[in-house]
Design a protein that fits this description.
Helix content is about 35%, strand content about 25%. The chain is an alpha/beta fold. The protein folds into 2 domains: about 300 residues, Ribokinase (UDP-N-acetylmuramoyl-L-alanine:D-glutamate ligase), CATH 3.40.1190.20; about 110 residues, Rossmann fold (3-Layer(aba) Sandwich). The chain has a 9-stranded mixed beta sheet with strand order 5-4-1-8-9-10-11-12-13, with helices on both faces. A 6-stranded mixed beta sheet has the order 14-17-16-15-18-19, with helices on both faces.
């Protein structure tokens, strides 16, 4: 009965290690009203400037938005941009103990100039610089200290020189020893350095460049070559509007079309995919379901300008558009529901299936919703073994936002999700309960 929120609702509190190239994304937004008298170029009248973590930092922020705890390992320079990057990550709750400073290194900055919701120019201030030998040893020590705390490792390589062969080799060996999956978003043309990863996730052009094959080559042949040379378990090739293709070492090939309403900006979509795959794998989901969720998350991301952060609430809303059964949760998966409800006002209605799909029940639901249309409505089905048909009929009602099954008691549920209003339906009678009354109903 519990479907994509049979997958999605299985999300629990997990911890992810993100390692890779940290950079600062800056957005300079304004209006273009004239052409410069100095040269045939547009003049951008700046209205707003903002900066936020990019690269591996954007992966970390997406993971935080998806409810994960994050340990970040990366490198910044001894500069203002590096300080701002550290501060931004720390404010989001990311553990930055593994973010090291390399004095001769300049923190990469990508400044996107945007006019009328369109990116007109990107200015990159960066140098590709190898990590120092001293820092390599320090980072390996940090990996050894952190790896026992995490359920998955996300590697975000932007080709800035941080992820050396030495670091990657030690990372893969440690992860294999601890049986922790490693998911890699690669860069460059030499993928052999990622040997031992669980999943390799290049985009289409990166995949062809890595095998040095012409674009006319069938993608199956490209995938077979990569799987053979990189010795990874699975290969995910992101293909923009064509979605994601999954290839396994056993010879399986599955294609997942992207689900997006409108393509505004593909910036950062790869980071979103990496984050969602990491969360799904950390929660033990089958890779096929993980890719479906990642595809949906990427579809939301490309509907926005710049590097977008996707949260569980947005995922839930999009999933509900695809399948009404996605609104059903059970007690084991209330963590996901808590994330979905953050910042939202909602009412809770407790009932049993003995009520049946009666006129009284329909009237009760509409009465509660009419009192405050802005509130979500959660129905708690109190039966220990709820009737499946009854629950599916409830889930088909537009007025019902979420359904909770098999919870220990109304008291436990109230203490977990903190509803703004609590109602109890007994027969055809509706009772509005105070917070204290709801807590006292421990036997419900």
């Amino acid at each position: 009965m519990v479907k994509l929120i049979g997958m999605f609702s299985q999300f629990r509190q997990i911890k992810v290690l993100v390692i890779g190239d940290l950079m600062l994304d800056t957005y300079t937004t304004g209006k273009v009203r004239r052409i410069s008298p100095e040269a045939p170029v547009s003049v951008l009248h700046v209205q707003k400037e903002e900066s936020r973590p990019g690269g591996a930092g954007n992966v970390a922020l997406n993971l935080v938005s998806l409810g994960a705890q994050v340990i970040a390992i990366g490198r910044v320079g001894a500069d203002v941009s590096g300080d701002l990057l550290r501060l931004s990550l720390e404010r989001e709750g990311v553990n930055i103990d593994g973010v090291v400073t390399q004095s001769e290194f300049k923190t990469p900055v990508k400044n996107r100039l945007i006019a009328d919701s369109q990116q007109i120019l990107r200015v990159d201030s960066e140098t590709v610089s190898p990590v120092s030998t001293e820092l390599e040893e320090q980072i390996v020590d940090l990996l050894q200290q952190s790896i026992d705390q995490v359920q998955v490792i996300a590697v975000s390589d932007y080709g800035k020189g941080f992820l050396s062969r030495f670091l990657l080799k030690n990372l893969m060996e440690l992860a294999k020893k601890k049986n922790i999956p490693v998911i890699v978003d690669p860069k460059g043309e030499e993928f052999s350095k990622y040997q031992g990863a669980t999943i390799l996730k290049p985009n289409l052009s990166e995949a062809y460049q890595a095998v040095k094959m012409p674009l006319e080559t069938p993608i199956e042949q490209v995938a077979a070559s990569l799987l053979r040379t990189c010795a990874v378990d699975m290969l995910l090739i992101t293909r923009s509007e064509l979605g994601i293709s999954l290839f396994t070492r056993e010879g399986d090939h599955l294609d997942f079309p992207v689900r997006s309403k409108e393509v505004k900006d593909v910036t950062g979509a790869g980071d979103t995919v990496l984050a969602m795959i990491s969360v799904a794998m950390a929660n033990g989901l089958d890779i096929r379901y993980a890719v479906q969720l990642a595809n949906i998350a990427a579809g939301i991301a490309i509907e926005r300008l710049g590097c977008a952060r996707i949260n569980l609430a947005e995922m839930a809303e999009r999933l509900l558009e695809f399948d009404i059964e996605n609104k059903i949760f059970d007690e084991e998966h209330l963590f996901a529901l808590q994330q979905v409800l953050q910042g939202k006002r909602f009412s809770l209605l407790g009932l049993t299936t003995t009520c049946g799909m009666s006129t009284a029940l329909f009237k009760t639901i509409r009465k509660i919703v009419a009192r405050d249309p802005g509130k979500k409505l959660i129905i708690y089905v109190r039966d220990s073994e709820p009737d499946e048909e009854f629950v599916l009929l409830l889930s088909s009602l537009a007025e019902v936002d979420f359904i909770v099954l098999k919870c220990e008691s109304l008291q436990d549920l109230c203490e977990t999700i903190h509803p703004h209003e609590v109602y109890l339906m007994e027969g055809e009678t509706l009772h509005a309960l105070s917070g204290l009354e709801a807590l006292l109903l421990s036997s419900c």
